[in-house]
Structure formats: C-alpha cells, structure tokens
Design goal:
Number of helices: 12
Strand content: under 5%
Number of strands: 2
Order of helices and strands: HEEHHHHHHHHHHH
Radius of gyration: 26 Å
Structural class: mainly alpha
Distance between the termini: 57 Å
Oligomer: single chain
Length: 306
C-alpha cells in the first residue's frame, strides 16, 4: 500500500513539474521578447548614443522628448496621421453601406465579398506597389485612362505634387481597409433577426429609421471592434507611405508618426538617433493608449451588448 502511495505521489509530483515547465514557457517568451525590450526602451529614452552603439550611452534626462516636441516635422507627421485616421473612419462607413447592400441578397454577393477581401489577404507592400504603378506619372494606368477619356490633357504627378498626393493616398487607404470590414460587417448583418424588421414595417418605420434603430444597435459591437482596431492601425500607419514615397512625399505629406520614428532610427544620411526614435515610440504608445481608453469610455453610450 505504501509503495502504491509513493508511486502515486511521485507521479503527481512529476506531473506538477511538467505543468510548471510548460506553463512557464509563454512567460519565458514574454520575458525575453517583451519585458526585457520594454525595460531597455525605457533606458534608451533617457540617453543619447553614437549611432546604434549601446556602449556609447550618455544620460541626458528628458532631452529626447524635448527634441521631439520642439520638432515641427513631428507635428507635421502627427497631422498626417490624423488624416490617415480620417481615411480609416471613411473606409468603415463605406464598408457598412456596402455590407448592407450585400446582406440584402444582391446577385453575386459572394463574388463581391471575394473582390473586396482580396486587398486584405494580399501583402500590403505588394498592394502599395500596384498603386504606385497605377499612379506613375509616365506609364501609370490612371493617367493613361483619364487622358484617353479626355478628362485631362497632361499627366498628373499624383505622387510628386502636394495637391494630389493626399488624394492618391486617401483612395489607397480607404480601398485597402474595406475588405476586412466588409467580411465582418456582412457576417454581423446576417445575424440580425428578420422579425424585428417585420415588426418595424407593421409600425410604419422608414428604411432609415430601421437602419439606425435596429441594424446599428444590433451590430454595434462589431462596429466598435472595427473602429478600435482601425484607429489603432491608422495611428501605426507606415508601410504604405514608406513604399509609396521613401523620402516622405511632397512637403512631407507622407510622413506619419511611425515613419517619423523610422527616419530617426535609420537616417537617410547614414546617422541614427536611437534615443529620439525610442522616445517617439513611447509617445506613440501613450497616444494609442489614450485614444483606446477614450473609445472604451464612449462605447458605453452607443454600443449595445444585449
């Protein structure tokens, strides 16, 4: 009996050790790839460096943050990021409209969903290169088509003119963000009970009233999810602008806050400002956190989870 109990205890102890080991693997991964880099970034914020050499660190306090807040280019990048944020909201609104049309059972709905979802599954870099060729001054499809239709007499410098650059990027951002939104919104709309619409019809409710009083409240959790993820994604926009115009675009209109960080870390002249770049990263993190908190505070007033 004692031998059996000892075997049982050893088995339980062995299982406990295995459990502890397996449970600590994610913790170890977080420590190595999350916590240590996070603590290191705090250290970097308050130091200056010669290039990317950590052994050249010199403590300078809040000077890195001061340099950012006194840099006019940072506020330019911040304004451009707000513009990207606006584009993401427009993309969400258009996605809601298109999803409503698809959910009504329009002919070829599955084909439309596939077409709109393609930009999401494709590489963002590849998609941006495609648009870069479309906007090309000499050989772009857009200029060729507009000239053939007689809408313009000379090619438009979409990516080299400050007047047209934002329009060109706005189209790319709106189009690129619609696929994922449409898939989720269409799925949410298909779960709305038809009985509610029938009851509203009996009461004589208009289509617009049904949309705002029935459809929006029921799918509001999905809209809220897409809003939060879309806003956070917009605040971190980088790849499209860096691929489209590596120099920041005309009058730096393609410079977002993350692109600003990238340029500080990998300066075109070969230099690097590691401390300023890291401080910029923390400012972006605080901005994203603040916007997310505001979104979650406001969602109590319009998101319905019943």
């Amino acid at each position: 009996m004692n031998k059996n109990m000892q075997k049982t205890k050893k088995k339980i102890k062995g299982e406990e050790i295995q459990g502890i080991v397996f449970a600590n693997i994610p913790l170890l991964g977080f420590t190595i790839f999350g916590l240590i880099p996070l603590l290191l970034s705090v250290y970097l914020c308050f130091h200056t460096f010669k290039g990317l050499r950590l052994d050249s660190a010199a403590f300078i306090g809040l000077e890195n943050f001061k340099a950012i807040l006194e840099d006019e280019l940072f506020y330019k990048a911040l304004g451009n990021t707000v513009y990207v944020l606006f584009a993401s909201i427009v993309s969400l609104v258009l996605s809601l409209v298109i999803s409503g049309l698809i959910a009504t059972g329009v002919k070829g709905a599955k084909g439309f969903k596939t077409v709109y979802f393609v930009p999401y599954v494709c590489s963002m870099v590849a998609v941006t290169f495609m648009w870069k060729w479309i906007y090309d001054y000499n050989y772009g499809v857009l200029n060729s088509t507009l000239m053939e239709w007689g809408w313009i007499k000379e090619p438009i410098d979409w990516l080299g003119s400050a007047d047209y650059y934002r329009v060109a990027m706005f189209v790319l951002l709106v189009w690129g963000g619609m696929g994922y939104n449409i898939i989720l919104l269409t799925s949410a709309l298909t779960n709305v009970s038809r009985d509610l619409y029938e009851a509203a019809d009996i009461d004589g409710a208009s289509g617009l009233r049904k949309f705002f009083k029935i459809t929006i409240p029921i799918i509001s959790p999905t809209i809220f999810f897409l809003l939060v993820t879309g806003v956070n994604g917009a605040l971190q926009a980088f790849a499209q602008f860096q691929v489209m115009t590596p120099d920041g675009g005309p009058d730096y209109q393609g410079l977002t806050v993350v692109f600003y960080l990238y340029r500080k870390l990998f300066n075109a002249s070969g230099g690097s400002d590691l401390g300023v770049a890291t401080a910029t990263g923390w400012l972006i993190a605080v901005l994203i956190g603040a916007v997310t908190i505001v979104n979650f505070k406001l969602q109590r007033k319009w998101v319905n989870y019943d």
